[in-house]
Every structure is written in C-alpha cells, then in structure tokens.
Amino acid sequence: MDPNRVIVFDTTLRDGEQSPGISLNAAEKLEIAQQLARLGVDVIEAGFPIASPGDFQAVRTIAREVQGPIIAGLARAHAADIERAAEAVRDAERPRVHTFISTSDIHIQHQLQSTREDVLGQARAAVAHARSLVEDVEFSPMDATRADVEFTAEVLQAALDEGATTINIPDTVGYTMPDEYAAFLTRLYVLVPGLHDVVLSVHCHNDLGLAVANSFAGLKAGARQIECAINGLGERAGNASLEEIVMLLRVREADVGLTTGINTREIARASRMVSRLTGYGVQPNKAIVGRNAFQHESGIHQDGVLKERSTYEIMSKASVGFDDVSSIVLGKHSGRHALQSALMDLGYDVAGQTLNQAFKRFKELADKKKQVTAMDLEALVTDELRAD
Ligand code: KIV
Ligand code: ZN
C-alpha cells in the first residue's frame, strides 16, 4: 500500500450515534452506510453489536448489503462482546472486530476497578479471541493519552503478539494537545518497534476543540488511519470531523503529501443526510459544510471574489459537492460591484446612473433587512428601470 495513503475510518454510526439524543434505526443506518461507501471511506464502524438487538441487526444488515469498505463492529475486551461483534460482521466482504480496554490508571481504578495486570491479561485474551474469529482485528487502549506510556506500550505489545492488525490510540476525553499527542505516538513507536508493521490509527475527541489538530499531528507522527465522523458527531463534543480532516489533507496536499480515497464531491450530500437522519443541525459557520462556509458578506471580500475567487476561497464549494451557485450574500456590507454582479445573475445588465440609484436604494433596504434576497433585488431594479 502507498505509504502516504491515509485510511479513513468512519465512526458516525458508532461513536457518532453515541451523541446524546441520537438513535438511528437499521434502515437509517443502512442509508448512511451506503452514502459512506459512495463517499469512499475505507472502514465503516457500523455499531456496537452487543449494545442492543437493534444495533446487532443494523450492523449485520450493513455487513451484508454494503460493498467496498471494511465493516467493523465494536466490542469491549469480553468474550461475549467479541463473539457478538464477529457474528454481526461475519457476512461482510471484509469484516473487522474492534476491541478495546482502558490503560489509564483513572479508568483502571475507578471504572474497571481492576489492576494493570488484569488489564494486560484481558487485552491479550481479547485480541487472541477476536483473531480466532476474524482476520482483521483492531485494538484500542482507551484513554491512552492519560495513561502511562510504558504500560500502554506493554499492552500494545501483547495485542501485537496476539495478532492485532491495527492499533488505535484514542484521546478518549479530548484532553491532549497536538505536540503532546505526536510525542506520545513517537514514544510508542520506540517502545513497540512492531508498531511499524501494522497500521497505527488516531481517534481524537473534540472536548477542547482540538480533535482535527490532534489527528493531523498524529498523521504527521506516522499514523495512517484516521477515525472520524460526518459533521464531527460523537460522544460529548464529538470526534474529529471527517470533512475537515479530509479537506485539510486535500487542500494542503502539496505541503503535507498525504492522500485519502475520499470522493470529496459526496461530502455535502453525506453531511445533509446525517443531519436529517440524526436531527443534529450543522452550525452555520462550521468549516466545510456550514451554510456560511462559502459565503462572503463584506464588500471587500465580495469585490475580491468577483475579481478572482482565490482571493478569499481556498477551495471551491463544488469540490465538496455544493451547487456552484452564487456565494455572495448581499447585506449592508456589500459593495456596488457585488450588487451589479447579483443583478447580472438575475438577468439585469445595469450600469451608470441606474446602478448608482439602485445601489442607494439597496443600502437603505440593507439597513432594515439582514439579508437582501433575489426577490428584493428584482423589485428594486425593476422600480429603477421603470423610473428611467
Ligand atoms: O473514545 C474512545 O476511546 C473510543 C474507543 C471505543 C475507541 O471511542
Ligand atoms: Zn471515541
């Protein structure tokens, strides 16, 4: 495989579904999984099969019906979880079981109420059991970024000894920082040399708004799988947003040198679908998929974009699948040039004194209305033309 190719592991249907209030039925999950396949993700984490009979069914349906991506099911490091996950993904073209156990002392003492020794044994047994059922096994040391790096390395070594094929390093509570996360991964590469022979993966939460930055730092440190979700959905403040990390790699490809297999023109459709089916709206100023992401309000910006789009746009809206309709929002900050261009789009070739008059009336209107619509413009210009 190309060493610069990043595997996109989408967890919208698992970690994303853990967002408060989201509960997708099997048909909805299948619809999203089919769109994820069109988008070109490499791995779909379809759910947590032991969690409920409905989730088991949804994962099984996706495994049977969605071709292309690897289909993964999540499992705690318990035999029953692993068996249920393996059964759910069994019919996939390429099934994967993803098993995890925490390595931080906070989790070991307070949540698992266990010991490091037991965790090490459980991790080893879980990976061995999963490998007896499927060939492709991912292992995650949960809360790794708050764990002792030496102990985490010991657990990873055990997972590799038992045949794990992907090692994922979760920043479960979104606590780490880019330099720190990269240093953590670099240290693991030193402590566990076998990591160079498998895929290292990043899984970052967004509690401090650093999920994408931390994931990117992880890729620069050598990871080649990124776990992410459409619209950045996920537990609490969410996961790294798929569209943001993918477009970062695309827009800065010449500098970073990493690629994905994502068909970016399917991003907008995926975002709208996930928003509709989960009921989670997208904030207007969200990078890449927010409704303002390609809109220009200030007169200076509008003037620049009308002369040459690259003045204020680093990617085209068409490249992420939005229709290439006008990205100019007319409001009180807009200039004469933007008005003239909007009128031209509506079929009115207006210049000179008529444009000056129309512009004056437009500014009066814009002071009263937040956004001036095409209908307002038509009314305004036809009045002006009539007065001529
Ligand atoms: O955030 C996390 O630690 C997880 C694991 C299950 C990978 O979602
Ligand atoms: Zn997570």
Automatic annotation (TrEMBL):
Top-rank lineage group of the source organism: Bacteria
Pathway annotation from the record: Amino-acid biosynthesis; L-leucine biosynthesis; L-leucine from 3-methyl-2-oxobutanoate: step 1/4
Catalytic activity: 3-methyl-2-oxobutanoate + acetyl-CoA + H2O = (2S)-2-isopropylmalate + CoA + H(+)
Keyword field contains Manganese: yes
Signal peptide positions on this chain: none
EC class name: transferase
Binding site for Mn(2+): D15, H203, H205, N239
Gene Ontology CC annotations of this record: cytoplasm
Subunit comment: Homodimer.
Physiological role: Catalyzes the condensation of the acetyl group of acetyl-CoA with 3-methyl-2-oxobutanoate (2-ketoisovalerate) to form 3-carboxy-3-hydroxy-4-methylpentanoate (2-isopropylmalate).
Protein name per UniProt: 2-isopropylmalate synthase
Organism in which the protein naturally occurs: Solirubrobacter ginsenosidimutans
From-to range in the entire protein, with total length: 1 to 388 of 524
